[in-house]
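Final report, Chapter 2: Outcomes

The project's central promise was a pipeline that accepts a single protein chain and returns its three-dimensional structure in a standardized token representation, suitable for archiving and comparison. That pipeline is now operational. To close this chapter, we reproduce one record exactly as it appears in the project archive, with the input sequence first and the structure output second.
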Amino acid sequence: MKNNMRILELTESTRKNILENLLKRSPSQYGQYEAAVNDIITQIRERGDEALLEYTERFDHCTLTPDTLEVTEEEIRQAYGALTPEFIEVLKKSAANIRAYHEKQLRNSWFDTKENGTILGQKITPLQRVGVYVPGGTAAYPSSVLMNIIPAKVAGVKEIVMTTPPGRDGSMNPATLVAADIAGAAKIYKAGGAQAVAALAFGTATIPKVDKITGPGNIFVALAKRSVFGYVSIDSIAGPSEILVLADETANPRYVAADLLSQAEHDILASAILITTSGTLAESVSAEIDAFLQQLSRKEIMEQSLQNYGYILLAPDLDTAVETVNEIASEHLEILTASPFEILPKIQNAGAIFLGEYSSEPLGDYFAGPNHVLPTNGTAKFFSPLGVDDFIKKSSVISYSKEALREVHKDIELFAGQEGLTAHANSIKVRFEAEA
């Protein structure tokens, strides 16, 4: 039987090579598509709905008009009818968990006052309008709909609009529509690809301009989001999915193998890595993976993913293993050791951390509540999961009484003078010129 997972000794050299290999998957490596994406954006900016409808016909093979771009209430009602009551109930349970988790992230405005009349503070304001992009076709993920819309609703965003590509007949994925309705989308538009991102960023006669765009998509969507950043805010430029499992000899090899494959099935660029201190576990996991591959439906995708970006790394000790975990900074990290909570304080870089053998990664994808929109491609070193903070903005508040300013005005004037900004100094000085 073919051995699908290579087992390597974890050394400085193998770590360096793996990191370089993983970084090849970054959206920044696909510059050959930038010109096409920028042309689409330009056309949408200049011709609005006309260009959007042309691209929808060209790429989605669907003929629409400005009047049929928006999903109707009747279409949403029909979507409910196309799903089983059991699945609708699961969507509602998942939404409730996601909402409860994100409500704990809410911030309040605050003010700090002093007796001399100084008031300093921070004002929290939700964004006015947010656009959520949702992939269509075979990559229809209602879980992502919930994860993108619910934090925005919790943050207090007044209007959330969603775009997703239509089928050839103009139909929409019913699970996507129901999830959007449950989560609280105000409007849903039949538009996909870079053209939908551009429409959200700049607005058309039909689709309103938003303040921020979130949501996953293919390389064209990722590049479009990068191009419109600055005109609007974006969540991130998401790369392929990743899982890293840190395990010792106590881990169940069948569980580890199943969890690695749960990410390898996403696409051929997905990464699945096991770092373990146990050679016995490494061999057992490799064998379990080969057996699972004979049973699971997306075998070819998983095999290619493992061939390209799958590794089992044998570490000499847990400290070395943890050091490599922090260097890779994986999107999903599972800790399957005898004492996972003892490892947790040592973890610096990971998008989401799953502790213990009954905290499998799909629990986070669908149901637990924490957001599954996570930093990828090593960006967990400086980025965080999508959350309520992504849908608010903060304003500083400053108020000084005359007495408070009098106490410090000479200090400010001196500081401004050192920078050669005499008008800055004068702005303070004039308020006390009568006292000179």
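Archive annotation: The first helix runs from residue 12 to 23.
This record, like all others produced under the grant, will remain available to the consortium after the project formally closes.
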